[in-house]
Amino acid sequence: MERDLAASPDRVYAAYADVTVRRRWFRMPGDRSRASHELDFRVGGHEAASGVFAPTGDAEERLEYRSTFWDLAAGARIVFGYSFTLDGVRRWSSLVTVELSALPAGGGTRLRHTEQYAFLAYTDDGAQDLAHLKGSTNLPTERPGGRPRHDSVTLPHARRAAKIVETFFFVVIPCRGSSTRLT
Question: Can you tell me whether residue 174 is helix, strand or coil?
């Protein structure tokens, strides 16, 4: 996925690196009082988040995200891997590369986000797993009542910036022993 943003590469990088800013656009769904988030943004550092979510309003799901940062180049590149666990079962792992490059004449930043998923355990036909992936890459651009979410990220044009996470390039790798096909 590639997007042009109206902020400098350093400012976009800071949206990943600064825990206060990151918490505005990276969070687990569900009750915030039952969620946790920590960020140690350095090579070898990690990010961890957990929460409880009831997508149908009935049964609760326990979500856990854990990542490790492997390469960081300020204003230019972020490489990390993460795993997602649902109700104590690791469902997928992912390798993510975020590349930032300045647009001509100080016109902002080109952000390129590449993500490769390996599904480790499926739920039934895999549809729920795809819903979790899509949910994890979809930031709301409006608050309840239709008011714009200008605080989603501290970049100009927050609505456009929020679109970054709506259309990732997915490479799905079913693991051996699984007969589930995902499209």
Answer: strand
Among positive and negative, which fits the CA dihedral 26, 32, 35, 36? positive
Q: How far apart are CA 127 and CA 122, in angstroms?
A: 9
The predicted model scores a pTM of: 0.71
The DSSP-derived string for 19-40 is: HHHHHHH---SS-GGG-EEEE-
- Select from 3.30.530.20, 3.80.30.20, 3.30.420.10, 1.10.150.110 the CATH code of 2-174: 3.30.530.20
Residue 137: count other Cβ atoms within 10 Å of its Cβ: 16
120-134: b or e for each residue (b if 16 or more CB lie within 10 Å)? bebbeebeebbebbe
H-helix or E-strand spanning residue 16 = helix 9-17
Tokens of 175: 């693991």
Question: What SS3 state is found at 101?
Answer: strand
Per-block mean pLDDT, blocks of 10 residues, the chain (183 long)? 92 94 84 91 97 84 95 97 93 94 89 89 70 54 40 33 35 40 35
Q: Which residue has the tokens 């501290």?
A: 154
- Token duo for residue 12: 């976009």
